[in-house]
Amino acid sequence: MGSTSLILLLLLCIVFITNNEGELIEKFQDKMKKVGTDNFGVNVRQFDHEEMMLFPNIGVQRKEGDWRLNLHGWRFQSPTKNKMLGKLSSAMVERIARLVASSDQMVYYNDTFQRDRLKPFMVQDKTNENFFIMIGTKHNYTTKTDGEGLFRTSFIVSNADVQELKNDQVITYKAVGNNADIWEGKIHLLERQGLSIISGVDDTIKISEVVDKMRLVANTFIHEFRVVE
């Protein structure tokens, strides 16, 4: 097994343990929340630490003249217990990386693993959860996450409303979670006719060095992202 495969395998093991423990804890927490709400009238959801990541998406004008606005996001929770696990996992992966790296590759491991980049592997998906989408003041919708905490949906909005809402070909919208937490996303508008450039990221926009897997891991989890010039 290669050194990079060993590091990735360790990450997968940590994620597997985290997710399985998280499911059991979530069931227990849900039970306690129900007891607190039903028996004591306490709004226990206010103590949840849930987050949402709204991915940049596009809106396209249809032949009818109106617009289809596409939205895509991820709802997850960062349990307190995973903070310590995140520190432990980053330290373990860093130690193994230093052990298996060659002398030429060691220069790429002079810094520590950035825990914020490991964080997406440590969180708990919030499945089948309802929340609101607000596009301006006229367009309010309800949607829900799937079995992996993701949602992907689209809405039809008139051209007149789009022209009113857009700012430099971008429409900003808000997603409101069931804890009254508010997150902001962006929709980039594409006219029916025009020129679009579609590009990859690794070694096209961002330096990743995908040919050398050890350097790829370092550029993904350790170093500051660098732009290809």
Descriptive tags:
alpha+beta, 5 helices, flat, 9 strands
| Distance linking N and C termini | 35 Å
Which structural class is indicated by helix and strand composition? alpha+beta
Shape: flat
Number of helices: 5
Report the strand count. Answer: 9
Output the radius of gyration: 22 Å
Helix content: 25-40%
List the quaternary state of the chains: single chain
Extract low-pLDDT stretches: 40-47
Q: What is the chain-wise order of helices and strands?
A: HEEEHHEEEEHEEH
Could you describe the largest sheet, including whether it forms a barrel?
Answer: 9 strands, mixed
In what range is the share of β-strand residues? Answer: 25-35%
Mean pLDDT: 76
GO molecular function, one term: phosphatidate phosphatase activity
Keywords: Signal
Signal peptide: 1-22
Could you explain how this protein is built, in words?
The chain is 34% helix and 26% strand. The chain is α+β, with helices and mostly antiparallel strands and 229 residues long. Helix 1 (3-40) runs antiparallel to helix 2. The model is unreliable at 40-47 (pLDDT under 50).
Summarize this, please?
With 229 residues, the chain is of the alpha+beta class. It contains five helices and nine strands; from the N terminus they run αβββααββββαββα.
